[in-house]
Amino acid sequence: MNPIRLALVGTGGRGQIYVDVVKRMPAGRVVWAAMCDRNEGVLNDFCDRNGLTAPRILSVEELVRRNDIDAVLICTPDSIHREPAVACFEAGFHCLVEKPLATTPEDARAICRAARRSGKLLHLGFVFRYDPCILKLRELVAGGAIGRVIACITHDAIGWFHGSTYMRRWNRFRKFSGDMLLHKGCHTFDVINFITGAYPARVAAFGGTEVFQPREGAASHCHACRLTDDCIYYTDQGPEYRERFYNTAGPQVLPEDMCVYNNEKDSTDTVSLTAEFTNGMRLSYTLSMVSPQGRRRMTFIGTRGEIRCDMEEYRIEYWPLPDRPVDVIEVPRPTGTGHQHHDRALFSHFLERLEQGDDPERGILDAYMSGAIPFAALESLQKGEVVAIPSP
User: Fold this and answer.
1) How big, in percent rounded to 5, are the helix, strand and coil portions of the chain?
2) Which of 118, 252, 375, 387 is at a distance of 20 to 30 A from 172, taking alpha carbons?
């Protein structure tokens, strides 16, 4: 079998992850056919640092004229997935697109429709689908452990320090992130779809920017503020803050010490919503960005019991009916640091789909529905009404 010829569009953090994954794979399964980034300096530094000899290309327009590419990894910033993804599908390439698929419903639909027209695979970068805990939950629900699923209660609790870093970064603007409900919540919405085998149909939401509102008397930046003594978000940008930032946000550029209250933003920080699914299940979901600890908690309620999961503790509680003792299921954590296991599994699945000639329709609906609840919820917040989710 000939190696799969890959191109990378976007040589930032996620691009680096895929280069690292390929380095750890057996030789001969894939080969880098091209590296693409519109910033020549960034592109050259990335290729030189990684010892990559593939052609260096500065535009998607040039990339899609090549005839030596099978698949493209779209790793551009969230808000600019549409142009490269649509162009690559139209050129006849398969695409792995990083999450979220897009930051607007219009862009999401455009990518899905381009994928459908092309007959090529659309694979989305949702690493949690490959988490052992999520896979066990799917097995239990699909196996009928709790009967017919009638409800799901979920809390995406983002730790207060981690949450505050987003309010100093690009994520605080919807034009870049699509809103924090999408940026953080899409992982959870996708695994709920994955676990239940169903999709959301309509949404009603409440919330907004409830915490990081303008604060009277506070300055625009911490270094000029008189209210730092009682502000838990104060930063002096010193070594202690810098270390904590890297330990929670990762190796990103340290943001300015701008006030998390008084800076410009339009993202929500607190949202509660209800969604009704195609299988009749109803979801109750809350996003909070000021929790004492970062946790993802999910409870699936069925006609024959409940399944409760805390992703931080990494265990599942199975509460069957009637009057039977709880079964605590300890799931082995994957080896490696961060998402290392998940990234390998995600990429390997994409390659398997290519090698086996998987049905292109599979993945299109999954990709679109991963962001459908956030898009509908934001519309619901604006209109104050229940919003139906359209098909892609």
Assistant:
1) 40, 25, 40
2) 387
Going by their DSSP bridges, the two strands 315-320 and 305-310 should be labelled as antiparallel
State the residue for tokens 């551009």: 76
CA-nearest of 304, 267, 319, 281 to 154 is 281
User: pLDDT per residue over 47-71, tens digit each?
Assistant: 999 999 999 999 999 999 999 999 9
Helix (H, G, I), strand (E, B) or coil at 170: helix
317-323: long-range contacts, CB 8 A cutoff, minimum separation 24: 318/140, 318/145, 318/146, 320/145, 320/146
C-beta separation of 156 from 302 below 8 A? no
133 CB contacts (<8 Å, ≥6 apart)?
Answer: 309, 311, 314, 316, 331
Q: Which domains can be identified in the chain, with CATH numbers?
A: 4-128+345-360 (3.40.50.720), 131-214+265-337+368-388 (3.30.360.10)
Beta carbons of 181 and 357 less than 8 angstroms apart: no
Please answer whether residues 3 and 70 qualify as being in contact, where contact means their C-beta atoms are separated by less than 8 angstroms. Answer: no
Tens-digit pLDDT profile for residues 201-223: 999 999 999 999 999 999 999 99
List, edge to edge, every strand of the sheet that includes 71-74.
56-57, 30-36, 4-9, 71-74, 94-98, 122-125
The Cα 232–Cα 244 span in angstroms is 14
Would the pTM count as exceeding 0.90? yes
Q: Which residues on adjacent β-strands are paired with residue 308?
A: 299, 317
